[in-house]
Amino acid sequence: MLGKLAVAPLMLIVASLTAGGAGAQSDSEAPGQMIVVSAPSANSPVGELTAYERVDGRWRSVLGPTPADFGELGVGTPADDVFRTPVGTFPLGQAFGREANPGTRMPYFEATDEDWWDEDVDSPTYNTHVHAAEIDSEDAENLYDSGAIYDYAVLIEHNPERIPGRSAGIFLHVSDGKPTWGCVAIGRDQMRSVLQWLDPAQHPQITIGVGLDGPPAAE
């Protein structure tokens, strides 16, 4: 979530992304890839990101730690129009970018000026991707016009139930060196590497918190 655009009437809507929620997992669904994002304090807009993969029941780091940008207000409880990055553990879902697929195995689309993320709490497509020439929304972000931060990105599924008020459009994306509006942002090369590494068969997750020193013990 970076910028907001209000545009004209809806012409075409693409179905919302598959919701992913937390909860009990079978062994076959336990994450084999984990991204850990750690802030030094709850109000810090910067921290670190480290990516881990599980091998023989143990986590090993494969990328990082690398600098990461958070919401202007740091990390904590998310809310619409509050620039805070959500704390918790969440699945990673739809990937996209203004650039061609860099080789990720995640579902990926190349964004154009007809790709939006709807962040209007009163809209039936709140917190979903909409592909349309125009969108009837008071609060929609154009995923192409928002600039280079969306050259590469992946959805952090922090609100799969699409409950208004819990914030929308939270991504892991390319940093522009500034605080985000609630997303996590890292360097362009690092973001490209993360996408190339991510594998939906490994049920990748991201954990965001304060003072984290690694993923939970693998079982």
From TrEMBL:
Name by which UniProt lists this protein: L,D-TPase catalytic domain-containing protein
Signal peptide feature range: 1-19
Source organism, top-level taxon: Bacteria
Domain L,D-TPase catalytic: 76-200
Positions in coiled-coil regions: none
Matching InterPro entries: LD_TPept_cat_dom
Lineage of the species this protein comes from: Bacteria, Bacillati, Actinomycetota, Actinomycetes, Mycobacteriales
Protein keywords: Signal
KW Signal (keyword) present: yes
